[in-house]
Design goal:
The complex is a heterodimer of chains A (about 300) and B (about 675).
Chain A (H helix, E strand, L loop, with lengths): L1 H9 L9 H9 L3 H18 L1 H4 L31 H37 L1 H16 L2 H12 L3 H11 L1 H16 L2 H8 L4 H13 L1 H23 L11 H8 L8 H28 L8
Helix pairs in contact in A: 2-14, 3-5, 3-14, 5-6, 5-8, 5-9, 5-12, 5-14, 6-9, 7-8, 8-12, 9-11, 10-11, 12-13, 12-14, 13-14
Chain B lengths: L4 E12 L2 E13 L4 E5 L6 H8 L8 E10 L2 E2 L8 H6 L4 E4 L13 H12 L4 H14 L5 H4 L9 H13 L5 E5 L7 H18 L2 E6 L2 H7 L2 E6 L2 E7 H6 L4 H9 L39 H5 L6 E4 L2 E3 L46 E16 L4 E17 L3 E5 L6 H8 L7 E6 L2 E2 L5 H4 L6 E4 L13 H11 L6 H14 L16 H13 L5 E5 L7 H18 L2 E6 L2 H7 L2 E6 L2 E7 H6 L4 H9 L5 H6 L41 E4 L2 E3 L5
Parallel strand pairs in B: 3-8, 3-9, 6-7, 7-8, 15-20, 15-21, 18-19, 19-20
Antiparallel strand pairs in B: 1-2, 1-4, 4-5, 9-10, 10-12, 11-12, 13-14, 13-16, 16-17, 21-22, 22-24, 23-24
Helix pairs in contact in B: 3-4, 4-6, 6-7, 14-15, 14-16, 16-17
The chains are: A mainly alpha (about 300), B alpha/beta (about 675).
């Protein structure tokens, strides 16, 4: 068919193209700040996993004679009111804090997104039920809600994670629902229906991927908030059981000594900031790398 | 005599990361006092940027006016900085501008009265009271009813056509010497387009203002412009009087444009000849003629020498082309369309037997039968969502389609044609009425039981930008129906079938791993068509499939649809607002108005003998791209007013408030669709 050949010619040659995985990586690591963020996260994970080996002291070993020491060669970040080595506690605290942040965000995010997806996609009664439920949860501040759940479940790491996870559900559900309602009106969703796709297929294949961008950003922001919220719960006695080390708890323990030993609060606080920053950078990179509009241009 | 506005050798560039875009490349034109001039070109050819450059309204940076002059009343505007008082006094004062999108060019938080006053007080230094009175007077002049009251309304309270009238009033507020109308009617319906163009013409004639119409629609300029400039890829490729441009067309691009638009007055057998390929990217363009890759008249010289400058080929008629088309004139309108081998340049060669359709005495098989279809959308109010009214989007529509037939469904926006199409596909469950597909009643089947029919009924969307999932690759989009309906057994078969579908719509299968935004509008529409064809449907609803595309691309898609129809024996319900496109593709046409079919008949009889006054008005509103024909046409039937709201439809015949033939009786009874001639149905008591 000569006409076919001619028309293909008119549409130009097909230039070589990188595979989508390679392109994903190219965009993802193409920006320095994203690499920086990823490096920080990897470093923190490394620290958390090897805490036993790299911490200079036992984080739980009290030594009241050595209490509230300023940073020195022996104790790089000084000691706390019970004479425990701050650096070791920061290192061990990374385990608790990363676990709380990541798992709580994952639980809350997954449940919230699922609820939002269902509410936004089906609308009507489903929407009313789910969204009024999240409205009710939203009326209560996140910390108070976590506190109430924590009070019912009791303290401890697992319960902190569960209560924080539940507390952040409404934010995700609300955002997801709004996104889905907008995406649902797009013609390509109608097209999915026209070609005979089931609701589940349309939801998972078309609606979900196109609604996700702002939720990735929200998740990276929420991570830090969850880590800090753990401090609030710990402060009120519903968080990590003493003598467990967690950054949030350390910040709140240290604040009484702020004028004399600022490093007690600053060191774990700096770590929290570092985590939030790193996840934000990576989240931005992830969002861009997944954005099809940047395909072919990068 | 000096020209009112004379632009000389204007060059504008945009600096992007990927290179320099020569948006306006050595453009010269002029407008005399009281003249109506047309500037024609497809999107991205630089016609708007040219106008914005003259007024220094382009974003700088990345834009930059590199050279040239814009002499307005003998003074070069480009010598002054963009924000200088001299330029400001001209902008909106001596030169008025109307933009394409009336939705975005009016400030939504100010009343239209305030917005007109602002300009009057700024340029003419009027005080508030005088300006207010003048604003109301202007609104009256552009035909806004109850002008005094309406001037306190906000833009969202006006329809698109009314907003464009407000824009005209605003542009005319300071009695400019020149009015630039940038695609003034692209976003509105044909009847509104006719109203607006007549209004523009009357206004400029009355005030002796010059008018520059920037448009992609050749018909618009044929009816109104005295002189025409044709632009392509940032350059003017042909200029001359309207008669010369249409009568002695000298540039292959202009010829291509004329041959690729469906015309109301052309013989029915006329085959559209698309301009193949895509408009060029303006980034780092080679020095040769930019039309060269798409040109059917190219000669060796074109490849070797840079783009030729304009040369005279007649009195005031200039062209930028080496080839003399007068020596080798092009025959407009080629052989019969329905029979024989069409050009097939959309990628497939249809296997048609001449005269296969209709004339063969085969028994007709009814594929689709729609009976008394109603689709009402509830309007709810208040906290408890009480239903307060119904929007009767489709109000008693009946028609049937035989296998292999194409029914055109025409009407202005909001008449319910899209809703009808979506009801037929069971994307909505109709409020009442029945839909029979292949004899099976599917109108009220539950969603799950409709799914098997989805293989046989498909939809081609209007907007190729929003109808493809931006995150899926083109191959996945086309292949998805195959997976859903388990039409392929292996991965290899899947790949082969997707590649076959790509070829069927004239796309290179190698492009399968790209995402939609990497394709142009026309290519995206091809992907949408390939998706619709994936599961071998017998019936396709085409919902304005070409209205979002460029003129030269439209013909490619029309031809493709036509070829596919013959090759795959498809049945189309072709929805459009454009009667000339429908005429080209359809066997029968149904005209809709406010949720009802007002006239339905054979394609030929509708155009030769339209019986309903609405059909007549629609036909008369379509401009024909040929000034010679336009001159001979009878007076345009201008419809008064606008399509009424579906919430408060008129009593009796829905058309009677706008009908030039309405009687007292028309406001009382709704005329039923009755058969006048064989197969010619009309809903009008005066027909």
């Amino acid at each position: 068919m000569t006409t076919l050949a001619a028309s293909l010619d008119a549409f130009g040659d097909v230039p070589p193209r990188v595979s989508s995985w390679r392109r994903f990586w190219r965009v993802f690591i193409g920006r320095r700040v994203v690499i920086l963020g990823a490096a920080i996260i990897l470093l923190l994970l490394f620290v958390a996993l090897t805490a036993n080996f790299i911490s200079p002291y036992d984080p739980y070993q009290q030594n009241l004679r050595n209490a509230l020491q300023q940073p020195s060669a022996a104790h790089l970040l000084g000691t706390d009111a019970l004479g425990r080595d701050t650096l070791s506690r920061v290192i061990y605290g990374s385990r608790t804090s990363l676990a709380v942040g990541l798992i709580a965000t994952a639980i809350g995010g997954l449940i919230g997104m699922t609820l939002g997806l269902l509410a936004g996609y089906f609308g009507g009664l489903v929407n009313t039920l789910i969204m009024r439920f999240t409205d009710a949860l939203m009326a209560i501040p996140m910390l108070i809600l976590a506190l109430a759940i924590g009070a019912a479940l009791g303290g401890g790491l697992t319960n902190v994670i569960i209560s924080l996870g539940i507390a952040i559900i409404p934010t995700y559900a609300r955002l997801m629902c709004g996104q889905v309602m907008a995406v649902r009106e797009e013609d390509y969703v109608k097209a999915g229906e026209v070609i005979g796709g089931s609701d589940l297929r349309i939801m998972v294949m078309h609606v979900l991927p196109n609604s996700l961008s702002p939720l990735i950003v929200l998740a990276t922001l929420n991570l830090g908030a969850a880590i800090l919220a753990e401090a609030g719960l710990s402060f009120l006695g519903l968080g990590i059981d003493p003598p467990g080390a967690a950054w949030g708890a350390m910040v709140s323990d240290g604040y009484r000594y702020l004028p004399t030993n600022p490093v007690l609060s600053f060191a774990p606080g700096f770590c929290v900031m570092l985590v939030v920053l790193a996840f934000n950078l990576v989240g931005d990179g992830l969002r861009d790398a997944l954005d099809p509009r940047l395909r072919g241009t990068l | 005599m000096a020209h009112l506005l004379e632009v000389k050798n204007l060059r504008t560039e945009f600096k992007l990361d990927s290179g320099v875009v020569q948006a306006v490349d050595d453009v010269s034109y002029y407008i005399d006092e009281g003249e109506i001039v047309g500037l024609v070109g497809e999107s991205g050819c630089g016609k708007s940027v040219t106008q914005l450059s003259v007024l220094q309204l382009i974003a700088m940076p990345p834009g930059r006016i590199v050279g040239g002059q814009a002499l307005f009343e003998g003074v070069d505007l480009l010598q002054f900085p963009p924000e200088s008082d001299r330029v400001r006094a001209v902008r909106g004062g001596k030169i008025g501008i109307i933009f394409q999108e009336p939705m975005t060019s009016l400030n939504p938080v100010l009343t239209i009265g305030q917005q007109i006053r602002e300009s009057l007080m700024l340029h003419l230094k009027m005080d508030r009271g005088t300006a207010e009175a003048r604003a109301i007077e202007l609104l009256k002049q552009v035909g806004i009813p109850d002008a005094a009251e309406r001037s306190d309304h906000y833009p969202h309270q006006f329809s698109g056509g009314m907003r464009q009238r407000v824009m005209i009033a605003m542009a005319m507020s300071c009695s400019p010497k020149l009015l630039i109308a940038d695609e003034p009617t692209t976003a509105v319906d044909v009847t509104t387009q006719a109203q607006l163009l007549e209004l523009l013409k009357d206004t400029v004639e009355r005030l002796h203002t010059s008018l520059l119409i920037v448009t992609h629609n050749l018909g618009v300029v044929a009816r109104y412009a005295q002189r025409i400039y044709v632009m392509y890829a940032g350059r003017i490729v042909e200029s001359g009087s309207a008669k010369a441009i249409f009568g002695e067309t000298a540039h292959p691009y202009t010829v291509g444009l004329l041959k690729s638009v469906p015309r109301l007055d052309a013989p029915t057998g006329r085959q559209l000849v698309p301009i193949e390929g895509l408009p060029p990217s303006l980034i780092n363009r080679p020095p040769q003629c930019a039309f060269l890759p798409r040109c059917s008249r190219r000669v060796e010289k074109c490849f070797q020498e840079p783009w030729p400058s304009l040369r005279f080929v007649g009195e005031g008629h200039q062209v930028s082309c080496f080839v003399d088309l007068k020596e080798k004139p092009l025959e407009l309108s080629v052989g019969p369309r329905r029979a024989g081998a069409p050009a097939g340049e959309g990628g497939v060669t249809p296997e048609t037997e001449p005269g296969r359709r209709r004339s063969t005495g085969q028994p007709r098989e009814t594929l689709l039968k729609v009976q008394d279809l109603h689709m009402h959308f509830p309007v709810t109010k208040g906290l408890l969502r009480r239903k307060v009214a119904d929007i009767k989007a489709v109000d008693g529509v009946s028609f049937q389609l035989e296998r292999g037939e194409t029914l055109g469904l025409v009407g202005e926006s909001g008449c319910g044609k899209t809703t009808t199409g979506r009801c037929v596909l069971r994307l909505y469950e109709p409020t009442a009425g029945e839909i029979r597909f292949e004899g099976q009643a599917i109108g009220h089947l539950p969603k799950r039981q409709v799914r098997p029919y989805r293989q046989k009924m498909q939809l081609i969307f209007q907007d190729p930008y929003s109808s493809l999932d931006p995150r899926q690759s083109a191959g996945d989009i086309v292949g998805e129906p195959l997976k859903i309906h388990h039409l392929v057994k292996s991965q290899g078969e899947y790949r082969d079938r997707v590649a076959e579908l790509f070829r069927m719509v004239g796309l290179n299968p190698g492009l399968g791993d790209r995402v939609p935004h990497e394709f142009s509008g026309g290519q995206r529409q091809r992907i949408g068509i390939a998706r619709a064809l994936a599961c071998n449907p017998s019936f396709i609803v085409c919902d304005e499939p070409i209205s979002a595309l460029d003129v030269s691309i439209q013909a490619q898609i029309i031809n493709l649809l036509e070829e596919l129809r013959y090759r795959l024996n498809l049945t189309y319900l072709f929805i459009a607002h454009d009667l000339s496109v429908v005429r080209h593709l359809s066997d029968r046409v149904a005209v809709m108005y406010l949720g009802r079919i007002v006239e339905m008949c054979d394609c030929e009889s509708l155009y030769e003998n339209p019986l309903h006054p609405y059909t007549r008005a629609l036909l008369s509103a379509i401009p024909i791209p040929d000034p010679a024909v336009e001159e001979k046409r009878a007076q345009i039937i201008l419809l008064q007013g606008e399509v009424p709201s579906l919430l408060t439809p008129p009593t009796g015949c829905p058309f009677h408030p706008r009908c030039p033939m309405a009687l007292q009786e028309c406001s009382e009874v709704i005329p039923p669709l009755r058969e006048i001639d064989e197969g010619h149905q009309v809903a009008c008591i005066r027909a």
